[in-house]
Amino acid sequence: MYRAYYRPKSVAEALALLQEGGGRARVLAGGTDLMLQLKKGELSCDAVVDISGVKDLRYIREEGGRLYIGALSTHTDLAESALLEKEAPLLAAAARSVGSLQIRNVGTVGGNVVNAQPAADTAVPLMALKAVATIVSPAGVRQVFLDDLYRPEGGVKLDPTCELLTEFSFVSPRAAGAGAAFGRVARRRALALPVFNTAVLLVPGAGRAFLTEARIVMGPVARLPLRARQGERVLLEQGAGEEIFLQAAAAASLEAAPRDSVFRGSARYRKKLARVIVYRTLLQAWENACSRVD
Fold first, then answer.
1. Does 267 share its domain with 165?
2. Coil, strand, or helix at residue 63?
3. What's the distance, CA 18 to chain centroid?
């Protein structure tokens, strides 16, 4: 499967090991995806660089109204974070929905994003929150909005043989006066990938007469977590309210392009489901926004 295993203690050491690998080394964070991919032969490598011991990449903190999450923070870290529950509860809720307790204890938020599955539960709210990913390489540091990190054809714009995703950051919805919510449907309540999930962010303007910002993200209805830009446009042009939310949800469902799936249901069913769940999530996000404005 691979010939060498390394366990660096710092980002610099990890980058040096990747360089030595000459394109044939792979990063392991939690390993919940990579080890299965190697075992199935979907990926091959000569060396595994296990960064789980890089303690500097595991944290959740707030500075000046902005939240910072280390890429090695586990789903359990997010799910149990009192700070996230206060400032961005939709992300904590999404993390609680991931897999089993064992998976949540090991799997990392960075790995969840880099693995680039359209059903990744934490990637959907992170995109709705306008999260910025910090990526380091021997060439330096770059920061990319999650909207721009994903490739339209699938995958992420990150070279796993020489780059590391180290951090996510975003403005706290609470600090911004925003309302946000996460919605999810699965075939059962535990150990199931979502049939559909969505995250919504709404920022009300003066007197709640209009919205200054609206973001709707859906999955898995495309090759990547999908911004429902037509649905967002309805909200920005018309404001908030039940009838408007129905229109926005209908527009969002038209943008969804799911495939027929034995496990998740037909494309037709999931487009109808998208309309219902986006509407409900918009209502919840607006309720949260109004309670914060008051």
1. no
2. strand
3. 25
Last residue of a domain, one of 50, 70, 85: 50
DSSP reduced 3-state for 58: coil
**Residue 291 pLDDT level (bands cut at 50, 70, 90):** confident
Query: Among residues 17, 20, 23, 25, which one has the least CA distance to residue 47?
Result: 25
C-alpha radius of gyration, the chain, whole number: 19
Q: Are 212 and 177 in contact (CB under 8 A)?
A: no
Tokens of 259: 């495939």
Q: In degrees rounded to 5, what are phi and psi of residue 132?
A: -110, 130
Q: Which domain holds residue 139?
A: 55-171
pTM over 0.90: yes
64-101 pLDDT per residue, tens: 999 999 999 999 999 999 999 999 999 999 999 887 77
The number of distinct structural domains making up the chain is 3
Cα–Cα distance, 229 to 67 (Å, whole number): 25
CATH number for 260: 3.30.390.50
What are 293's two structure tokens?
């404005």
